[in-house]
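Re: that chain you flagged

S.,

Sorry for the slow reply, it's been a week of failed gels. I finally had a moment to sit down with the sequence you sent. For the record, here it is as I used it:
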Amino acid sequence: RLLLDTESVYDDQKNHFDPNKIADLLDGLEAEQAQGITIDVAHRFFDSESRRYHIADSPGHEQYTRNMATACSGSQALLLVVDATSGMKKQTEHHLEIALRLGLRNIVFAVNKMDLVNFSKRKFTSVKQEIENYVKERSNQFDSICLFIVPVSGLRGDNVVKNSQRLNWYGGKTLLDTLDSLQA
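Prediction finished late last night. Pasting the structure tokens below so you have them in one place:
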């Protein structure tokens, strides 16, 4: 959604994708699109008003963890996407662990699919608390973690690049503004 809303998608790609399958913009392998999962690391670039970004979109599935480690090495920040309907999963914890071991300390969680929980502040707060508790446990071993947690709806674009009325209870920054605020 970041690519789409920052107008960083090529016109030929825009004309041939299903708006309900935004991940297909990054999932280039036929097997990825057929299975609905990311297998390989996809590299894309986009610009905000303040900096240029290199996205290394990596698999979330446990079977492809080594690809996540490859994408993560050399990165300056980690953006983990957590489903608002289910919260943290084992693979999310595993990916965070890899990133921390590789030295990343700028950690952003996008709590996605807020549309599926009716943009519920209570549901976001519950997932946010779960994330904070887990990261707090990890901060005993890894210091200086800079944690940000942002509610979004990737499908609708709520709070990704632009503020959303449906999330008006959230007083924080959009996902892009949060990324722009990180120190390189």
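What I noticed first: The chain is about 30% helix and 15% strand.

Talk soon,
D.
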